[in-house]
């Protein structure tokens, strides 16, 4: 029996389960990706005659694939790895913003020069370029998920308590079956898909609102759906913490009762 094949089979089954559990979230993700793609196709038709736009197109393509891969990883129970990819979309956004205002940096990048995050941020600061609003999430994601912080490893380290109050630790390899955690992560990812879509197609390269009014309506409706899901989850969070408190309190009371009997 192969341990790794067991992991792959488990993740396939987990993905099928999560797609049933997160039907609304998956439908919303599909709509957001379609909205993203519609704007992308409209601009690509116009950019075909502009060679310098290939750099923009490549960065947008990577951004889309980061978001797509992140969602797939969440549905396979790998939240920390999924959120690390979301940080990459911020780096792409910073590249796009810099290259739009500094053609020299864009040409250097096209010829193979690698710009690290600190290089991009330094260039934007020197040129007086305001970073994308997405950049505000860069440090929190770095500290929590990209590096092996305590938070970053917690989703695959599970503490169990037996009815007798005995504690044990299990390290999970591969996907984690935790609906509550995945719901919070998928909502964070949906928020990123929305924000990245708006940054690229509503801020950097906005579609004409008269010609493409339906596109804006679709994005607005998707944003409203996302807010409803987030509010619903906040109530679930409250119920979850109450349930956890009740469980822990029962374990402690039972343990105290056993000590007194001794």
What keywords describe this structure?
262 residues, mainly alpha, two-stranded antiparallel sheet, 10 helices, elongated
Describe this structure in words.
The mean pLDDT is 91. The protein has ten helices and two strands; from the N terminus they run ααααααααββαα. The protein has one domain (3-224). 28% of the residues are buried. A hairpin with a 5-residue loop joins strand 1 and strand 2 (167-171). The radius of gyration is 22 Å and the shape is elongated. The chain has helices at 3-21, 23-47, 53-75, 79-101, 103-110, 117-127, 138-146, 150-154, 179-204, 213-261, and strands at 157-161, 167-171. Helix 3 packs antiparallel against helix 9 (179-204).
Would you spell out the secondary-structure blueprint of this structure?
Blueprint: H1 3-21, H2 23-47, H3 53-75, H4 79-101, H5 103-110, H6 117-127, H7 138-146, H8 150-154, E1 157-161, E2 167-171, H9 179-204, H10 213-261
Antiparallel strand pairs: 1-2
Helix pairs in contact: 2-3, 2-9, 2-10, 3-4, 3-9, 4-5, 4-6, 4-7, 4-9, 9-10
Radius of gyration: 22 Å
Q: How many independent structural domains?
A: 1
**pLDDT < 50 runs, ≥5 residues:** none
Number of helices: 10
Lateral strand order in the biggest sheet: 1-2
Helix fraction by DSSP (H/I, runs of at least 4): over 70%
Q: Strand percentage, roughly? A: under 5%
- Could you say which structural class the secondary elements and strand pairing correspond to? mainly alpha
Tell me, briefly, the overall form: elongated
Order of helices and strands: HHHHHHHHEEHH
Query: What is the straight-line distance between the termini?
Result: 46 Å
Arithmetic mean pLDDT = 91
Number of strands: 2
């Amino acid at each position: 029996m192969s341990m790794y094949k067991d992991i792959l089979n488990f993740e396939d089954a987990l993905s099928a389960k999560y797609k049933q559990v997160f039907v609304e979230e998956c439908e919303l993700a599909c709509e957001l990706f379609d909205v993203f793609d519609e704007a992308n196709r409209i601009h690509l038709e116009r950019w075909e005659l502009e060679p310098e736009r290939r750099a923009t197109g490549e960065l947008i393509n990577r951004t889309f694939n980061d978001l797509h891969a992140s969602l797939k990883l969440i549905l396979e129970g790998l939240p920390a790895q999924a959120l690390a990819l979301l940080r990459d979309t911020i780096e792409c956004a910073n590249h796009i913003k810099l290259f739009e205002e500094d053609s020299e940096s864009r040409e250097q990048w096209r010829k193979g020069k690698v710009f690290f995050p600190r290089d991009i941020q330094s260039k934007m600061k020197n040129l007086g370029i305001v970073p994308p609003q997405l950049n505000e999430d860069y440090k929190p994601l770095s500290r929590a998920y990209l590096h092996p912080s305590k938070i970053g490893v917690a989703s695959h380290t599970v503490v169990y308590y037996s009815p007798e109050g005995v504690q044990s630790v299990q390290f999970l390899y591969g996907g984690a079956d935790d609906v509550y955690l995945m719901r919070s992560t998928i909502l964070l990812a949906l928020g990123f898909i929305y924000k990245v879509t708006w940054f690229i197609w509503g801020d950097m390269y906005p579609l004409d609102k008269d010609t493409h009014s339906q596109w804006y309506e679709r994005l607005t409706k998707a944003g409203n759906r996302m807010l409803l899901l987030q509010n619903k989850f906040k109530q679930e969070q409250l119920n979850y913490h109450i349930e956890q408190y009740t469980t822990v309190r029962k374990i402690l009371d039972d343990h105290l009762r056993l000590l007194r009997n001794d």
